[in-house]
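Appendix B, Record 12. Input sequence as logged:
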Amino acid sequence: MRDHSQGPQGHEGSQSPESDEQPGGSTPAVWTGRATNRVQWVLAAAGAACLALGIDLAVDGSWTSGSAPLVMAVVGCVAAGLLMLYGTLAFVHVAVRVDKDTLEVRCGHIGVPRTRIPLTHVVGADFDPRVTPRQWGGWGYRWRPEKGTAVVVRRGEGLVVRLGDGRTFTVTVDDAEAAVRVIRARLRLLGGRPASA
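Logged structural output:
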């Protein structure tokens, strides 16, 4: 979990019900969006199968012919199953929330890993129409020294936030252009810093 310094997840790809108009403007008080990758449920099923195989080997395995190979098989299956289950369930969807002070990104069903970025640390926001796992070396929470940090749960549009220390944070989210508009409006309210390159 990274904390660059919690909130409810919203409706898919647009403003949440709690998004009220601010006085004198059209920026919502809170913007929420999300992205989902249903293909990762297949990988979660494979992880569950590995876990079940490990448990089956532990219960029904023949322990009389030597325990070392069986223990290794059980531990290997259980570990692989748990890793696959966590890796897929943690990144099957992502929820993004922008309020007046913070950008928050929560992954999976339990919201972990979670990233909170105060908008005072943000110098700009951009729309990327084509974020792919290949650009980042795979799905999930990624870091590349030349690109920054990303949360990638699917291919497609994403939000790229530029931070004051020169790093970037990218997240795949539906209706990323709306998120960019909201963040840019927040940055103007926070002191007129440039919101785009």
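Residues 31 and 179 are 7 Å apart (CA to CA).
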